[in-house]
Amino acid sequence: MAYGKEWKEVREDGTVATRSNTWSPPGSHPVGYGVKVITKDGKLIRIEGDEDNPITNGRVNAMNLAMREYTYSPQRIIYPMKRDPKDRGKDKWERISWDEALDICCDKINEMKEKYGAESIVVFGGTGREACIYYYALAFSAIGTPNCCYTQSGWSCYGPRCSVTDYILGAGYPEMDYAGYFPDRFDDPDYVMPQYIVLWGKYPLPSNGDGLFGHAVVDMMKRGSKVISIDPRITWVGAIDGNINIQLRPQTDTALALGLINLLFENDTYDHEFVENWCYGWKQLKERAKEYPVDKVSEITWVPEEQIRKLADILGTSKPITWAWGLAFDQNKNGVQLGQAFLSLCAMTGSIDTPGGITIGPPAALLGKWRMEQRSYLPDDLWAKRIGAEEWPGLSTGMATTQPDATLDTLETGEPYKLHMAWFNSSNFLAPTCSAQPKRWHDGLVKLDFVVIQDLYMTPTAMACGDIFLPMSTWAEHDGICITHYGRNTVFMGPMNKALQVGECKSDIEVCLAVGNRLNPEWWPWKTAEEFLDAQLEELGMTFEDLREAGFYQPGYTYKKYEKGMLRFDGEPGFNTVTGMVEMKSTLYRAWGEDPLPYYEEPNYSQISRPQDAEKYPLIMTTGARTYTSFHSEHRQVPSLRHINPWPVIEINPEDAPKYNVTEGDWVEVYNMFGEARLKAHITPTIHAGVVHCTHGWWYPEQDGEEPNLFGVWKSNINSLIPHFNVGKLGFGAPYKGVMCNIKRVKSLDQD
Ligand SMILES: Nc1nc2c(c(=O)[nH]1)N[C@H]1C(S)=C(S)[C@@H](COP(=O)(O)OP(=O)(O)OC[C@H]3O[C@@H](n4cnc5c(=O)[nH]c(N)nc54)[C@H](O)[C@@H]3O)O[C@H]1N2
Ligand SMILES: Nc1nc2c(c(=O)[nH]1)N[C@H]1C(S)=C(S)[C@@H](COP(=O)(O)OP(=O)(O)OC[C@H]3O[C@@H](n4cnc5c(=O)[nH]c(N)nc54)[C@H](O)[C@@H]3O)O[C@H]1N2
Ligand SMILES: [Mo]
Predict the structure, then answer these.
(1) Which of 372, 566, 617, 656 is found 20 to 30 A from 559 (Cα to Cα)?
(2) Cβ-contact 216, 202 below 8 angstroms
(3) Does the beta carbon of 455 sit less than 6 angstroms from any atom of ligand 1?
């Protein structure tokens, strides 16, 4: 159903309902909950679900239900501000106009370029938010630096999965098939309901990770699909009768995947037609997988042998099977091999590009042309200066960024050149979000000459090092486009429609345009967001107003594109890889000095690889499983959400808790050779014995914000326990979801 002009409606009670699609800010991934923003006299009243949205059907997540509190929080920053660099760490901000703020920023950019070269400026960006579409362009063609950095050690989010897909499959992000492409959804005649949904290292109900509307899993369960959850924790979905839990030791997934591949070959239950015609290197993979017999895999993973066999039987005999892979792939040094093995399993079960299997995007992203072009603005010699690009081709080929760990080294050592200026766009990485060993980042950042912060709230990062603060609008306060997987697998695209204005806040697009207009008008000719969005949508033959009136866009899906010549730039059948096939044995991995076949590697900080530390640190810590009430470090100031989850939590198995004299609700210090953090104990049998899980992203906005306290950012900073440069051979992956640790009971957040 198209909305027509009724995307904005005045109701009888005088309120206005503006249909929109939520993305960010505040943070969220491009899923696009369809909503109605209810305003009165320009003020936000509430968010309602939009029952006409074909995917979300009127449902809204907790963070959007709390939008009014978020929008009008007294702690939100709604005017541009400046602070003298000598007052960093002090609450000495002064309100200024946008013009003054932008003039200062642009003058500084020009000054840095002249004195030290454009590469002395680095743009930092965070996760999956709308800003991510624009901060690369902000760096490359507005500011003119090759150094755009996503700071998570080993680029451990999404980038690895996308790059692995690119290298092995030559396609856009593989997503579980939840019939999102079709207006009639699950009733579409082309669609087949999967027998099983594999949720591997992903729990999409709270996370809606990457581009997947998590509740679709529940919609599919209602229609008969069963879930296989591969996770050290038993989740709500896993706990439902008939669903299967494979509770493994963190970071041992690649061994499990290879064990399953071995059994599918051994049992001869793989899809012969697909494997033999469309997969390169399958015989070598078969040989490699023989090194992973089920008894060995059971010992490595802690999963009982009979469970592994049963799982292999299900995978070999059920059709269709749909697969979702999550963050646990990226946050693993061995994750590139895991991704390769995972895609091989998808191939062996005949799931790739088939109804009810996994969908894949074409090699060129929808609305991706403009983003690619911005890169070409930079001359080759400047592009060659991108930090870590030459040393890490396996990363820098897939990602247009710096290598994050190398960026920290550059910040600390001034090699190969000194960094002088940073522009933070949607990243608060001192709070335990992106950065591992955040104190090291802190000490490097406070020494920079000039720092710009583009955010909605005063954060520990802004307080520590910001000189200019540019206040951002929420998704309800600006125009934009929400597109799943940034166009790499466009299940759905929808308009974000401005419904209100708060203070003088502007959107990320507007800031990009303002900076681009000043510094590089030839590449930034658009004056308004709408003009810019019109230009973006030209390739689809529509304007932004058309998209508003349509309400949403679902492109439809053609299955088995590889048979039809729809996946390669040359129009031939096959996949867009070096060999034209699914590369179970990777040509590119080999070219970059990596084993072309998947292998299991024990994590560096485990009791097995460091027996000398096993007694000191007998537990394994995984972190960051998402909660319904926060997006990373955001939302801690929102009373109703904080009420639900008031403190950081460490989950401990009831077998382990008494050994440490810990009971429910106690404060616990978790520590290892890198650092420590304090959280509250939750004793639960849903976590595997021997493993603890810690929530991430904690700081205390209610506390003193000035240095050295910085809103208590060091107290529960779980990333203090995560080492840097613990990455795989391609430069990807880090142990955020698996390091050894110990715990002890303490009196409180501050007292031993
Ligand atoms: N231990 C551990 N650490 C982790 C993880 C984990 O699982 N465990 N997960 C990691 C992952 S996967 C990721 S992606 C990172 C995320 O790390 P970050 O993306 O750095 O997340 P935040 O700390 O929330 O910082 C985002 C900042 O941007 C602001 N913001 C929100 N939306 C917008 C917007 O649209 N525009 C602008 N300009 N600003 C906005 C927010 O207010 C916030 O201050 O954290 C990582 N850290
Ligand atoms: N509400 C909310 N939503 C979010 C975010 C948020 O902060 N809050 N962050 C967003 C971001 S940036 C991302 S990347 C996504 C991530 O979302 P997901 O991909 O769903 O990842 P997580 O929630 O980190 O972890 C998923 C599951 O992996 C399990 N796990 C932990 N270690 C391992 C392991 O070694 N192996 C396996 N197989 N499983 C393991 C955890 O127990 C957890 O249940 O969520 C996004 N959505
Ligand atoms: Mo992420």
Answers:
(1) 372
(2) no
(3) yes
